[in-house]
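Bump. Still looking for Signal recognition particle receptor FtsY structure tokens.
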Amino acid sequence: MSKTEEKKGWFSRLRDGLKRSSSAISGGITDIFTKRKLDDDVIEELEELLISADLGVATSARIAANIAKNRFDKEIAPEEIRGALADEVSTILDPVAQPFLLDESRKPHVVLVVGVNGSGKTTTIGKFAKQYRSAGKKVVLAAGDTFRAAAVEQLQVWGQRTGCDVVTTKVGGDAAGLSFTALEKAKAEQADLLLIDTAGRLQNKTDLMAELEKILRVIKKLDPDAPHSCLLVLDATTGQNALNQVEIFGKVCNVTGLVMTKLDGTARGGVLVAIADRFSLPVHAIGVGESEDDLQPFAAKDFARALSGVESN
Ligand SMILES: Nc1nc2c(ncn2[C@@H]2O[C@H](COP(=O)(O)OP(=O)(O)OP(=O)(O)O)[C@@H](O)[C@H]2O)c(=O)[nH]1
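Sorry for the wait, here they are.
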């Protein structure tokens, strides 16, 4: 498949995945803008529409005001508004759309993967493992979600599939100790990348924080700069709650980048715009489906156009 075909294929998948979010926005724009002049009421309705699509109050107000500029008192076609919205969203997302970069000077580059249960951490780890294995890198996985046997098994499956060693311990075992062992092994083997999975029991914040802090403390004994990255995986279906998760996890570990999954299962995909606007954290990848191919590097313009219901890329 050529690069253009591949890009086109991904754009259709992205557009299909974001359908629930985009049809609410796109349909709302048609309802608001058909045969009406752009006045204060229309701006307010647009703002409300964006808030209901989870773009956040402050961000929605700013976008609506920007779109209204130079268009006041004119009858504007819905398609033009969708295009203008895509441009506004793209301006917000562009600075945060940054691919994850492997630091080759680290042996290994240590990545701590955090996020609440079921957010898509394992899928993300599997995808990264596959990507770097295909590039000929040595990758070690640490099954740090020691609470659930299924989480460990799932990571082992990824290990087998991608040819990566998976360091595990018994169910209920110490995640920090396991991370230490995994880093020791990865260092000894001159691995390029160590991906550490973690448990995400946000319902017990104190335990979660204590556990993450312990992992951080312990791996720093072997490498004071580790972890070199901390990826927070967010589930888009949680909507505005994803903003709280960025804050909570940010207090424990220095979150360096985000991955947002399950954008296909929700009408709340706009939350990614609110998060980008508020935290300015790099967004490395997004997921619009259950297969590993549905997790792709984040492209701001494509996302903005798909979310706004602009038909082509
Ligand atoms: N629809 C959809 N499902 C996804 C996406 N990403 C992951 N999933 C599914 O969500 C479920 C949870 O994903 P995992 O990768 O196991 O998440 P986790 O954070 O490791 O979960 P725990 O191990 O339970 O903590 C799985 O059934 C995945 O197939 C996505 O982008 N879209």
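The chain has twelve helices and eight strands.

Edit: fixed formatting.
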